[in-house]
Design goal:
Family: Belongs to the TACO1 family.
Shape: globular
Largest sheet: 4 strands, antiparallel
CATH architecture of the largest domain: 2-Layer Sandwich
Keywords: Cytoplasm, DNA-binding, Transcription, Transcription regulation
Strand order of the largest sheet: 3-1-2-9
Number of domains: 3
Oligomer: single chain
Number of helices: 10
GO molecular function, one term: DNA binding
Helix content: 40-55%
Order of helices and strands: HHHHHEEHEEHEEHEEHEEH
Radius of gyration: 18 Å
Subcellular location: Mitochondrion
Main location: mitochondrion
CATH topology of the largest domain: Alpha-Beta Plaits
């Protein structure tokens, strides 16, 4: 498993800590509101909403919070209107970063994201500067207990593009439109699915060969992820496992 995949696996497991601070719940409910506003409040007919509701359930967001977020999105309850916006930039060592946000104040968010880049040794870029390096994909996390052959058979037959090891489990990459189909096929095959979501995956990666470089890049990523309006941070770095172990140790 690449260092980048391992990093994402570690970030995935940190979700419980985010939830304890309340940030994860707020972000997930915000995503649900936007999905309901853009595609309707029925998860059966709104694939985007279905993905976000599933993600919230996996993070143990209370049912009432989910239902109220949907109602705010459809206008049944009053709420803030959030706008989706993306920002692009570079971390040290030429690492491309793509940031997805939901905000009720575009000017404030843009200024703050720019400051995060500059304070941490990075720089904002013009729209389109790095977006071409990333592609929307479905990502499924498989927990321990399944064999690689079982996961490969169920996933690839259902339309998955790739299966890779991730710690004591696996990661399954799918076309964005096939995420739910592949997840359902895995579950029907008795394979434990820990989570699934849409993500952005870089077409190529830059390897960070020393601890100092890794820390510089992860400093920018962590600062961006800590911003309340940020929903996702995607980058094209790869950190060898021995370097990542030093950074995380």
């Amino acid at each position: 498993m690449s260092g980048h995949s391992k990093w994402h696996s570690i970030k995935h497991k940190k979700g419980a800590a985010d939830a304890a601070r309340g940030k994860l719940f707020a972000r997930l409910c915000r995503e649900i509101e936007v999905a309901a506003r853009t595609g309707g409040g029925d998860p059966d007919t709104n694939a985007g909403l279905r993905t976000k509701v599933q993600k919230a359930k996996e993070a143990s967001v209370p049912k009432d919070n989910i239902e109220n977020a949907i109602k705010r999105g459809t206008g049944e309850l009053e709420g803030v209107v959030y706008e989706a916006m993306n920002y692009e930039g570079y971390a040290p060592n030429g690492i491309a970063i793509y940031v997805e946000c939901l905000s009720d104040n575009r000017n404030r968010t843009g200024s703050e994201i720019k400051n995060i880049f500059s304070r941490n040794g990075g720089a904002m870029a013009e729209p389109g500067a790095v977006a071409w390096q990333f592609e929307r994909k479905g990502l499924i996390h498989i927990g321990p207990g399944s064999t690689e052959d079982d996961v490969l058979l169920a996933a690839l037959d259902a339309g998955a593009e790739d299966v890779t090891e991730a710690g004591d489990g696996f990661q399954v990459i799918t076309p964005p439109t096939e995420l739910h189909v592949v997840r359902s096929a895995l579950e029907e095959a008795g394979i434990k699915v820990e989570s699934s979501d849409l993500t952005m995956i870089a077409s190529t990666s830059i390897e960070l060969e020393d601890e100092a470089s890794a820390r510089q890049v992860l400093r920018v990523v962590d600062a961006l992820e800590d911003h309340d309006d940020v929903q996702g941070v995607y980058a094209n770095f790869d950190i060898p496992e021995n370097i990542l172990d030093m950074v995380m140790g």
